[in-house]
Specification:
This protein has two domains: 15-107, no CATH class; 122-359, MetI-like fold (Orthogonal Bundle), CATH 1.10.3720. It is built from 14 helices and two strands. The protein is mostly helical. A two-stranded antiparallel sheet has the order 1-2. The longest helix has 39 residues, at 213-251. Helix 6 crosses helix 8. A hairpin with a 5-residue loop joins strand 1 (51-52) and strand 2 (58-59). InterPro entries: MetI-like, MetI-like_sf.
Length: 360
C-alpha cells in the first residue's frame, strides 16, 4: 500500500507539469493578453484621463505619437510606452524564457504577484479560500448526508410510490440551475420581494469581530445558509440516483440471496453485506462531487451572493488576463483534485480490505 501511495504522489509532478505546459502555451496565443489590457486602460483611462503604471511616470494618451505595434489597440501610443508595459509584465522576454521561469517558480510555489490587483497570488488565494472552503465542504457534506440515505431508501422501495414521487422531485431539483435558484432564494428570503430573513451578501457581518463565540457561529451559518441551499438542491440528484442504482445491483446478487436464506434480517443484509460493496462506486465519485462543489459549482453562486471565493477570483483573472492568478488558481485546483483522488483510493481500502493496491 505504501509503494502505491508513493507512486501516486510522484505522478502528481508530471501531471501538474503537463497541465501547466498546455495551459501556458494556449494562453500565450489567446488574444487580449495583459499588455493589451494595460494599453486599453491607458487609452480609455480613468476619469482624469491619465493612467499610472506601477514603477512608471504618468502617461497622457493624447500626447503620444502614432506608431505601429503588434498589440491590438496600441496605435497612437509611443513605442517606448509599449516596451515599458511589456517589461512591466515580463513580455519583453522570449516565450521559452517565460515558460522556464514560470515552471521554476511554480516548483517553489512562488506564484508571483497579480498584474491588476496589487497583491501576491498567494495572498489572493488565502483571502478567497475560506469562502470556497465553506461552500464546498458544507455543500458536499449535506449532499452526501441526503443522497446516501435517500438513495438506499429508493433502492429498497424500488417501484413504489415513494420511489416515483421522490424521483420527480429529484428531477425538478436537478433541472433548476443553481444560479437561478440562488436568485429565487434572494427574492423570497433575502429582502427581495417577500421576507427579509437572511443577509443579501457576504460571508460574515460587519460587526463579526465584536460578537461572542456563539454569536459568531450563528452569524456564519446565517450568511452561509442560502448559498449552500442553492448549491445543494441541484447537486444531490445525480448522487442519489447513483446510490440507488449501485444498491439495486448489489441487492440482486447471489450473496444477498444466500444471506437472506441464512435467516438474516433485511437490515443486517443491507448494512452488513450490501452497504460495503455498494458504496465503492459512491466513494469513487467523491472527487468529482467535491471539486465540482468546491470550485466550478460555486462560481455563479459566489457572484450572486457577492462572495469573494476562488471561483470568482479565477473568473475575474480570466476576464482580465491576469496570468499569475490564472496559473496559480489552476495549479491549486489541480493539486487539490489529485490529492482528493488519492484519498478516495485510500478510502477504498478502508471500506473493503480485499482491495489490494500493491498488486497494481
Amino acid at each position: 500500500m505504501l509503494n502505491y501511495f508513493i507512486r501516486r504522489l510522484l505522478l502528481i509532478i508530471p501531471t501538474l507539469f503537463a497541465i501547466l505546459t498546455i495551459n501556458f502555451f494556449v494562453v500565450q496565443v489567446a488574444p487580449g493578453g495583459p499588455v493589451d489590457q494595460a494599453i486599453a486602460m491607458i487609452e480609455m483611462g480613468p476619469q482624469a484621463g491619465m493612467t499610472t503604471l506601477p514603477g512608471s511616470e504618468a502617461i497622457q494618451p493624447n500626447s503620444l505619437s502614432d506608431n505601429e505595434s503588434q498589440y491590438r489597440g496600441s496605435r497612437g501610443l509611443d513605442p517606448q510606452v509599449i516596451e515599458q508595459i511589456k517589461q512591466q509584465y515580463g513580455f519583453d522576454k522570449p516565450i521559452w524564457e517565460r515558460y522556464l521561469e514560470t515552471v521554476k517558480n511554480f516548483l517553489m510555489f512562488d506564484f508571483g504577484n497579480s498584474f491588476f490587483k496589487n497583491n501576491s497570488v498567494i495572498g489572493l488565494l488565502w483571502q478567497s479560500l475560506p469562502v470556497s472552503l465553506s461552500l464546498g465542504l458544507w455543500s458536499t457534506l449535506i449532499i452526501y448526508m441526503i443522497s446516501i440515505p435517500l438513495g438506499i431508501r429508493k433502492a429498497v422501495r424500488d417501484g413504489s410510490k415513494f420511489d416515483l414521487w421522490s424521483s420527480v422531485l429529484i428531477i425538478i431539483g436537478y433541472a433548476i440551475p443553481s444560479f437561478l435558484l440562488a436568485i429565487l432564494l434572494i427574492i423570497l428570503f433575502a429582502g427581495g420581494s417577500y421576507w427579509d430573513i437572511f443577509p443579501l451578501k457576504g460571508l460574515i457581518s460587519a460587526n463579526f469581530d465584536q460578537l461572542d463565540t456563539l454569536g459568531k457561529i450563528k452569524d456564519y451559518f446565517w450568511h452561509i445558509c442560502l448559498p449552500t441551499v442553492a448549491m445543494v438542491i441541484g447537486g444531490f440528484a445525480s448522487l442519489t440516483m447513483l446510490t440507488k442504482n449501485s444498491f439495486l445491483d448489489e441487492i440482486r446478487k447471489q450473496y444477498v440471496v444466500t444471506a437472506r436464506a441464512k435467516g438474516l434480517s433485511e437490515r443486517q443484509v443491507l448494512y452488513k453485506h450490501v452497504f460495503r460493496n455498494a458504496t465503492l462506486i459512491i466513494v469513487s465519485n467523491f472527487p468529482v462531487v467535491f471539486i465540482g462543489m468546491f470550485f466550478t459549482g460555486s462560481l455563479l453562486v459566489e457572484i450572486i451572493f457577492s462572495l469573494n471565493g476562488l471561483g470568482l477570483l479565477g473568473y475575474e483573472a480570466v476576464i482580465q488576463r491576469d496570468y499569475p492568478v490564472m496559473f496559480g488558481t489552476l495549479y491549486i485546483f489541480t493539486l487539490i483534485g489529485l490529492i482528493t483522488s488519492i484519498l478516495s483510493d485510500l478510502a477504498y481500502m478502508f471500506i473493503d480490505p480485499r482491495i489490494n493496491f500493491e498488486a497494481r
